[in-house]
Amino acid sequence: MKQNFISPGQWLVTTLILAISLGAYGCADTASVSEDVAAPLSNLTVTPGTLQPGFLANTTNYAVNAPTSATSVTVTAVPKDNAAIVTIDGFVTSQRSVTLGAPGSTKTILIVVETLNGLETTYAVTVTRLLSSDNDLSALTVTPGSLAPTFTSSTLDYTVNVATNITSMTVSATKSDPNAVMTGSLIAGAGVATGQATIALGGPGTATPVTITVTAPNSSAKTYNITVNRLSNDNNLSALSVTPGSLDPTFAANTLPYTVNVAIDVAEVTVTATKSDPNAVLSGSITDPGAGQATGQATIPLGGPGTPTPVSITVTSPNGSSKTYAITVNRAAPSSDNNLSALNLTPGSLDPTFAANTLLYMVNVATDVTDVTVTATKSDPNAVLSGSVADPGAGQATGQATIPLNGAGTPTSISITVTAPSGASHTYTVTVNRAAPSSDANLSALTVTGGPLIPDFAPNTTIYTLDVPSSVDSVTVSATKSDPNAVMSGDVTAGTGVPTGQESFPLVPLLPRTVSITVTAPNGDPKIYSVTITRALF
Description:
This protein is mostly beta strands. The protein is built from one helix and 36 strands. The protein folds into five domains: 8-129, Immunoglobulin-like (Sandwich); 137-230, Immunoglobulin-like (Sandwich); 237-331, Immunoglobulin-like, CATH 2.60.40; 340-434, Immunoglobulin-like (Sandwich); 443-535, Sandwich (Immunoglobulin-like), CATH 2.60.40. It has one helix at residues 8-25, and strands at residues 41-47, 61-66, 72-79, 85-88, 91-92, 95-99, 106-114, 120-129, 137-143, 157-162, 168-175, 181-184, 194-200, 207-215, 221-230, 237-243, 257-262, 268-275, 281-284, 295-301, 308-316, 322-331, 340-346, 360-365, 371-378, 384-387, 398-404, 411-419, 425-434, 443-448, 463-468, 474-481, 487-490, 500-506, 513-520, 526-535. The strands form ten sheets. A five-stranded mixed β-sheet has the order 2-8-7-4-5, covered by helices on one side. A four-stranded mixed β-sheet has the order 10-15-14-12, with no helix packed on it. A four-stranded mixed β-sheet has the order 17-22-21-19, with no helix packed on it. It starts with 7 loop residues before the first helix and ends with a strand.
């Protein structure tokens, strides 16, 4: 029988055999493989842990990573030859618990198998006790206040709200593994489980960050974050506006009631409110824009014309105190303005000159004017035009129409009714007098080349003579109508609208040539002018 303990001499022999084996077969990081070992094992296990590489009878070197919590491992070695003797870590046994060193240390365990006929093989297992990866906190507390959410080791981010009068906070943190290291806002070295610090807070309404980093013995790290909100009591608005419209009185943070007057056609207003403290909360007519957002906005539908619409905005500070701002939006009642602000006719001019309260007018136009253009502007663009001028549309102030006139010498009546939004109406009337046709059948000028007329021209003188020397073999007669719309006919012609006619006439000595010109006035009255021209013989 072999002894239970290996003598120092046997240890020396075993060590020499291992050295010779490593020299013969080479050394790798995790294993040494022989083609055929003398005294093989049929199985080898280390608990807790896993052999690297997996067990093979001809592989004699192994590595095992044991967890940090393992202070020992159990080695079980089963020889192929049941009669062989197994020594584990110096003890004759097929199973043994071997004590490990501190985390991060390694221990080489030798397993020697010896057959009865003297054959021997040594297996080596290098066990590394891993460093701890525990970078958790087991406890985290704040005073005053409470963490939100409630502390768990896997939750990293927390919020604490404290009153505005709190200027500092005590934070305590306990490491799950005392050998981890705590840094950041709190400090605790390896072997010290708990760290504590008093954290100075920022001013009211500010957030103070607290960071706690836990670094495990294996260097893996985890950071816990606490945001400490020192709550503000600021429940003011820093700005308030209404569009369209303007606040009365002008906005001031401490003024709570306001009035805004808007036109009748305004059906809604946009209210914009800015919190003095972005972390306050808006409610009422304006929904809060969200934590940390300063400005909220809402579109408020108004009641019918002539009615008030209340708008209320409550500001609740982070510490819970509140203040309510109130706006009364007055939508104007329907206007009773049924006046025109301007009225004109083209061509022509009003008599008397236009005034909003004057309803009756007269305009005189020439006989050849067949239509007039009427332009009417409402004093209230939301009033409605009717009658001779159609309404231009809601909100449009000016309407225009072209009015055909009755025959020359007759009046044409134009009526323009203005109906206010309230329903009250005004009617303006313009009488356009188109002049009767002219009776002017006169000439305003009559000339003949070659000499002066006898007698001198006058519109009411219709008969003229002219003697020219024998050297003048032709003359040109020019005649201008007093009324351009008269018609010139006969030897010299000019139609309506053409003021002057002109013709040349050949002359024969001693044979008088009479030129006849008939002027017919627009009303049909005729007048005949005649000029007798005599050319001398010598």
